Structures are given as structure tokens and as C-alpha cells.
Amino acid sequence: MTGTLYVVATPLGNLEDVTLRAVRVLREVSLIACEDTRRTSRLLAAHGIQTPTTSYFEHNEEWKGERILEALRQGRDVALVSDAGTPAVSDPGYRLVRDARAAGLAVLPVPGPSAAVAALSVSGLPSDRFLFVGFLPGRRAARRRALEELADREETLVVYESPHRLLEALEDLRAVLGEREAFLCREATKAHEEYRRATLGALHDDLAAREEVKGEVVLVVAGAGGDERAPLPVDDATLREMFTRLSGEGLPRRAAVKEIARRLGLAARDVYARVQDPPDGEVD
User: Which pTM was predicted?
Assistant: First the structure.
């Protein structure tokens, strides 16, 4: 009997975001192939899993993949995981899955987190039809050519981007696609997670005003002729009520404003101005 290759989705950040089945499979297999063994070790330690691990990433996947296939041929079950989310979705794994299937070996999914689906689900943009773009090309000319091919697509677009290219990517998205509604998902499920819906231009301007942008980013962009309406308005009274409640819970003023902005997808400077400036006729 040959072994089974399990393609196991793992948490994006919060280590509790793992299925019961994933924990069981990771305990029962003979070997876990990881994009980064150091990162996976934190997940394994959190759930008391002691299964041996081996590295499997972009630069060793050819020769390491053959070793994993040999283990499967010998009857050993192997779990494939990436650093976060679902393997083979803009992460290593596609070639191993392809070669395992070509060799007649069993490959089974253990579904779970995906950054693309997580961002789409909370974006408020149409989700009945979407196009997963993955990472855009790193060079500007190639990126703009790729965006030109997407300009007429009516599906909601889901894009991965690195933080150091984010501003350039937003500039190119706006230049090629026009001023569309978009959603920023940064550091999903992690301590400093951020979710914000605004136009491409507004997102760019807000991020450009920051000293630094860190973390993994997913951009969800309205399709051509799709739902490009502005976010639902939040009245000042609601903002003030939230500000008062958070301040009463002990948050400093600056922290309370940032938390409101994070929850509602607004710019922190706009929230600050609206909670500080009382309506006409009122005394703050």
C-alpha cells in the first residue's frame, strides 16, 4: 500500500484557526513537509504535535519533492503545509501535487483558511463571481500589462501584494482600472490586523501618509461595471458612541480612534476629526 499526500490548510495568523481534522492528520502522518519548518513548529507546539518535519519550498522543491514521493511510495503518509493558509495557492505545493497524481498516488485536501477567501468574505464587494489574480508582476511595465488584461473583467478581483510594492501597485491599479472601490486586508487574524474599504486612491493616500506598511496584504477590487458604491456612511453619533465606550474601557484617545478606524474601515484621521468636532450647536 502506498501512502497518502494530505494537503493541509493552516492558520493565517491566529493559531486557533485550525480544524480538528487538520490537527488529527498532522498528528497521524509520518512526515510534515513545510514551507518553513521554524514557522510550522509554532503551530505544532501550540497543539502538542510531535510529528517530524522537513523543509519543502520554492528552491528545493525539485529534489526534495522526489524524496517525499519516495516516502509516499513506501507507504508513509505525508502532510503538505505552507507558512499560512492553503498550500499551492500562491505557495509551494503545486508541483508536488501534480507529480504525486502523475505517479498514481493518493492526494487528499484538508480544507481550511485561505487569505483570498477570508478577505473577500469581509470586503462587502460582490462575491458570487471573483477572479483570483494572485501576485502581480514585480516590475511596473509588466504589472500594467497584466492589469490591462484584467481591465474589462466584471468579476471582483482578488490580488496578493507585498508591503514594499503596495503603493506602486495601488497607483497602477488606479491608473489602469480607474477609480474603483477596493478593500484592504492586511495581517489577517494577527495582532495588528487591518481591514479597510475605500477607493483605490483613498487607500493609496492613507498608506502613503504612514511611515511604513508591514505585513501580508490582500487587495479586493471591484470588477468592471460592478458594485463600486462607496461604503455605507457611518454617522457621527455612532462614531462618538463607539469612542465613548472604548475610552470608558480604558483605551487612550489615540488607541480608541485607531480601533474604530480598524473596525469600520475608515481613515484614522477622519475618525479623529469627527469625534473631536461636535455638531453645530453642541458643546464638546
Answer: 0.79
